[in-house]
Amino acid sequence: MKIAMMASEALPFVKTGGLADVIGALPLALEYCGQEVIVIMPRYKSITDSKFRINRISEGISFTTIGRDIKVYFIENSIYFNREGLYGDKNGDYQDNLERFAFFCRRSIDLLKEINFSADILHLHDWQSSLVPVYLRNTYFDKSFYKKMKCVLTIHNTGYQGIFDKDEFSKLGLSGDLFDINGLEFYGKVNLLKGGIVFSDLINTVSPTYAKEIQTKDFGFGLEGLLRQRKNVLSGILNGLDYSIWDPSADRFIMQNFSEQTIESKVFDKEDLQKTCGLPVNKDIPVLGMVSRLAEQKGFDIFVESLNKLCKMNLQIVILGTGDLKYHQILKTAAEKYPKVISLNLKFDDPLAHKIYAGSDVFLMPSKYEPCGLGQLISLRYGTIPLVFKTGGLADTINTKNGFLFSVYSKEELLKSVEKAVFTFKNELKWASLISNAMKCNFSWRISADKYIKLYVKAKTS
Ligand code: ADP
Fold this sequence. Notes:
This protein has 16 helices and 20 strands. By secondary structure, it is an alpha/beta fold. The model has no long low-confidence stretch (mean pLDDT 97). The chain binds adenosine-5'-diphosphate. Residues 17-18, 291-293, 320-322, 348-350, 353, 373-375 line the site of adenosine-5'-diphosphate.
């Protein structure tokens, strides 16, 4: 099949979130499975000729190659994309985001014809490429080149929908009829993700549980009704993990490499983590690691409420993250009060993240909602036992054999779950069995790519 992946970010070029991981990895796995894939994304300022080997095709279009032979096409526009940020800067979202991504979507569709890529599937991601199906079905519908193309939309997080003032609708160049409850209108505003949901052939999200959750009021952010209407074409596929990056037996950032067979070496990484973080070195004290955005979505509201009690439990907590200033402040105060318990690292630091995944005993991820989640998949690979709230992708990947879960979102339940983990940690046999089960889990992209191929086939025959 011929697949054109259209998205606003991708590794190794730019990343603000999990979307970039997916677009960096899924095309490679699809190519490995014999599919013909191209990627189309905006060319931001940081994507320079010197950093990446980029070739020019025509005015405004350049490309590079990833994998064996996957072309990544860059849509250029000096006004819209030649900026430091992807979606905004320190003053907030860019004011012209609707125009920027409408341009991206239209230019991407035109590009297919220019390079004569008669795609079977256009795979769109999030609100930034949600206008592709809208234009395809309403503006390009009578052009034979595009007639057979099917649209698959992946929603990575319903919390971000691309909502704009109604006055901006006219900038889209669409018929006024589409500013309607059955089109892009959403409580008097323009909602781009809604347009994608209405006009795509199939919709999916990044875990089976999240696909169900977004049809409810708590997780749908206002789109639950529409998603329920479209539930026959809505499914969930877990993201994979890039095991070439996250591999404890070859990780160059950690003190001592280990595998399931040499798990006894993990203790050297724990010692190294405790030393690096200025915590007392003691293998008998369980270390709880957190690598996360400091945001309510990630469970920091109940975590900070539990901190005083947690700190009295004979454990250590290593936190790495940045985010809401409110949490920076609360955590700083707690770390000053409990310097022998909490190591607080308010920064983005990839090497330290690797050390935390390798050296911790428990990985704490009490997210209030989690479309898929990467942290728990990484920690499983490193024999670090996840402790999670049972939601979204966390519910689909963690169970009582490889981790700890709590199913009522409250500080009391979080504390109970930590108590249980600390208690179990003392039982060497039980802990070894948890580690062994965790390290045997396989969330490789190959498995997810197979599921995407089935989804594409379904779209093609729909
Ligand atoms: P998100 O909702 O933020 O995308 P995920 O769990 O899906 O959450 O992915 C987050 C990724 O970013 C993980 O790979 C995690 O290790 C990494 N990460 C988050 N915060 C930091 C940080 N401060 N330093 C290094 N890596 C981080």
